[in-house]
Amino acid sequence: MGGDDRVILITGASSGIGAAGARALAADGWRLVLASRSIERLEELAGELGGSERAIAVECDVMEWADQQAAVTVATEHFGRIDAAWANAGFGAQRSFLGDSVEHWRAMVLTNVYGAALTIRATLPGLKETRGHLLLTGSVAGRRYIPGSLYSATKHAVHGMAESVRQELDGTGARVTLIAPGIVDTPFFENLPLEQPLVAEDVARAVVFALSQPRHVDVNEILVRPTAQPL
Ligand SMILES: NC(=O)c1ccc[n+]([C@@H]2O[C@H](COP(=O)([O-])OP(=O)(O)OC[C@H]3O[C@@H](n4cnc5c(N)ncnc54)[C@H](OP(=O)(O)O)[C@@H]3O)[C@@H](O)[C@H]2O)c1
User: Which residue puts its alpha carbon closest to atom 45 of ligand 1?
Assistant: First the structure.
């Protein structure tokens, strides 16, 4: 099996891309630490993926440093190591600088940017030990400029962090992959803006690809759009 019993911690594993990634990685032989705020959904998924020998659920609000540290502690105590971490938790907002509440903005910036930075900080010591692999979920929105989109700005920040941490880790043997999806059919969208979007399993395959490369290959970025997505 590709994962060879290696251990991955995934934030935002309760839904959409994170949950599909968890299923694909479990099928590839990875053991999983599933983190998000919805503990019941995570526990259900962990059960589906083989129970505590193969997958565990950890309640974690990525905005909280104590939660992120606790997730890493639980992972390390349970499985003895962390070989990969995937900072995937995130959500969007209306496309207008007059849209949504300022509280919604605050939570989005703290989740998408600060939360991802905390995941990096919490997992980096373990990843250096195992010469492991860090993944970050960016977005096509982190590559281009979208009118009125603070969400897009948060993803530009994630793209910046991916390259910054790659440079920091250079020479340690650890690797960094930025996964930048186009439009994916998940609960992220209330109304999908495209007729034929990606499905979460399409992104999951990209994650499995990045994680299955030989040690000397570091897939730094995968941008994957639906075949028909103009921007
Ligand atoms: N769908 C798309 O078109 C698309 C495109 C490009 C990039 N992305 C990115 O892909 C990632 C996953 O999104 P998705 O499409 O799979 O949406 P989703 O189905 O809504 O999943 C979002 C995940 O983030 C978690 N999350 C949100 N806030 C959190 C917090 N404070 N602490 C911990 N977990 C939190 C949610 O878990 P809980 O609610 O259980 O905490 C959930 O598991 C996000 O970073 C998103 O920006 C999505």
Answer: 90
Q: Is the pLDDT of residue 110 over 90?
A: yes
Angle between helices 116-130 and 65-79 (to 10 degrees): 30
- pLDDT (mean) for 63-84: 98
pLDDT (average), residues 102-120: 98
User: Which residue of 17, 106, 154, 190 sits with most ligand 1 atoms within 8 Å of its CB, as the best mutation to test the pocket?
Assistant: 17
> What totals of helices (H) and strands (E) does the chain contain, helices first?
7, 9
**Residue 114 designated active-site:** no
Structure tokens at 158: 């994630």
The residue behind tokens 């299923």 is: 23
Residues 6+ apart with CB under 8 A from 211: 2, 3, 8, 25, 28, 30, 84, 133, 135, 177
Say how far apart CA 34 and CA 56 lie, in whole Å: 6
β-sheet with 175-181: strand ranges across: 55-59, 31-36, 7-11, 84-87, 133-137, 175-181, 221-224
Identify which of 70, 67, 34, 39 has the alpha carbon closest to the alpha carbon of residue 50: 34
CB 131 within 8 Å of CB 174: yes
